[in-house]
Amino acid sequence: MSADKKTILNAVHREMGARMVPFGGWDMPVNYGSQIDEHHAVRNDAGMFDVCHMTVVDLKGARVREFLQNLLANDVAKLRTFGKALYSCMLKPEGGVIDDLIVYFMNEDWFRMVINAGTTEKDIKWMQQQAPEFDVAVEPRFDLGMVAVQGPKACEKALSIMQPELAVAAKELKPFNAATDGHWFVGRTGYTGEDGFEIVVPENETEQLWRDLAAAGVAPCGLGARDTLRLEAGMNLYGSDMDEGLTPLESGLSWTVAMADDRQFIGREALEAQKAAGNIVKFIGLVLEGRGVLRGHQKIYESDREVGEITSGGFSPTLERSIAMARVADDAGESLEVEIRGKRLPLRVVKMPFARNGKAQIEL
Amino acid sequence: MSEIPSDLKYTKSHEWVREEGDGTVTIGVTEHAAELLGDLVFVELPEEDAEFDAGDECAVVESVKAASDVYSPVGGEVVATNELLANAPETINDDAYGDGWIFTLRLSDAGELDDLMDAEAYAEHCENEDH
């Protein structure tokens, strides 16, 4: 019987009243009392998430750029300035998504990647298989901790607790860029649709960082709020919205695939074949007016025809109704219904995101 | 450990019952249930005048985590429902035994109250469930 892994912040979460749950092999906080309150704290003020379970991987070598241009569906050619980041899928030759991740350009011999917790082992193994051809070293950084601080007041509060040299650099960051003082690494990135930083520190400094942020008025937030925030922001969750059996084109992630030129990358051929064949399933946003909560795997109908299913669903605290992401047949129309506990309820199809930057982004 | 008032009676499915002394009882779900469910987002109240037997599904509470049926602890006729919960379902999380009451029944058989657990028995039941 194997116990769930614990991040360096496990004892602090319990001390702060967290309700703990197993998540992908980790013992993590789901909330500290109310996930809805935590959600509102991020949309209106500042909240923080323990993301130590995710993994930083440093990729080094003279040909690391070439390696990544072959490995990733998005093109790191776009990354030329220090700290610039890119969101990309990493694909199997058959086109299925191994993981979604963010990669940062550090210098021509060093890129930094952040990958998901549940896929860490498999991602590293895959990269280690591809790396020798390009003489790249794959260095997982299990010695680092990471905290995400998110919300309109997040940057202000996080800057107030940083060393001056780092704060000066972090203050100038544009979204999707990172800064470092050689000790801490700060990216202006996140998974909530709000402004904020993801702060990477030596593992033994993570607890002090968490406590300092709490003292600066940042609310501890758990996985419950993390999920409702990213869902509202229209951000995919690996394992729910896509997996190795699905391509980016079937998962609302075509925008992350760079195929305009003739760059060869793993999975390109499969995607081209899929495009040529046509009739690719649609990835859509849905709102349920009235009572009820949309949840993963609920079936979607157009009249009597089953046309698809919910991939991720939940209650949106910002919109005060249920929202979901779903995958439906390419010829499905807009008059859709969901089946919940034996009843068919009407759905509204919307363009995502549902909410971001503190407010609704769809008509209510 | 969650609060378990000693003046109430309880069911294995985490409902509480308060005798009002006039042949009616008020019913809700316990703090323990609310903690397990997480933030409540919708409550489907029973219809007024509806009649239930003990054990019948009579209401639904839906949380961020899951939808849960509420079972009538005793038989009777619904004489009042807590309309507050329609717009403020989180009241159950904040005050499960007070403002978070769900409905009131006129008892058909007061004897059925004897089949319910007291606070001590319910506390033990919760502990056993956790293991």
Plain-language structure description:
The complex is a heterodimer of chains A (364) and B (131). The termini of chain A are far apart. Among the domains of chain A are: 10-53 and 143-232, 2-Layer Sandwich (Gyrase A, domain 2); 281-360, Aminomethyltransferase beta-barrel domains (Elongation Factor Tu (Ef-tu), domain 3, Beta Barrel), CATH 2.40.30.110. Chain A has nine helices and 21 strands. Chain A is an alpha+beta fold and 364 residues long. The longest helix of chain A is centred in the middle third of the chain and has 11 residues, at 120-130. Chain A has helices spanning 10-15, 35-44, 64-71, 120-130, 154-159, 164-171, 206-215, 223-232, 268-277, and strands at residues 19-23, 26-31, 47-50, 55-60, 85-91, 97-107, 110-115, 137-140, 144-150, 178-180, 185-187, 196-202, 219-220, 282-288, 299-302, 305-316, 321-328, 337-340, 343-350, 355-356, 359-360. In chain A, a hairpin with a 2-residue loop joins strand 18 (337-340) and strand 19. In chain A, the strands form five sheets. In chain A, strands 10-11-12-9-3-13 form a six-stranded mixed β-sheet. A six-stranded antiparallel β-barrel of chain A has the order 14-17-16-15-18-19. Chain A has a five-stranded antiparallel β-sheet with strand order 5-6-7-4-8, covered by helices on one side. The relative contact order of chain B is 0.25. In chain B, the strands form two sheets. A six-stranded antiparallel β-sheet of chain B has the order 1-2-3-9-8-5. In chain B, strands 4-6-7 form a three-stranded antiparallel β-sheet. Chain B has a single domain (9-111), classed as Beta Barrel (OB fold (Dihydrolipoamide Acetyltransferase, E2P)), CATH 2.40.50.100. Chain B is of the alpha+beta class. The mean pLDDT of chain B is 96. Helices cover 20% and strands 33% of the residues of chain B. The two termini of chain B are 14 Å apart. In chain B, a hairpin with a 4-residue loop joins strand 1 (9-10) and strand 2 (15-19). Chain B contains four helices and nine strands. Chain B has helices at 31-37, 84-87, 91-94, 119-129, and strands at residues 9-10, 15-19, 24-29, 40-44, 51-52, 57-63, 67-71, 76-81, 103-107. The interface between A and B is medium-sized, with 14 and 11 residues.
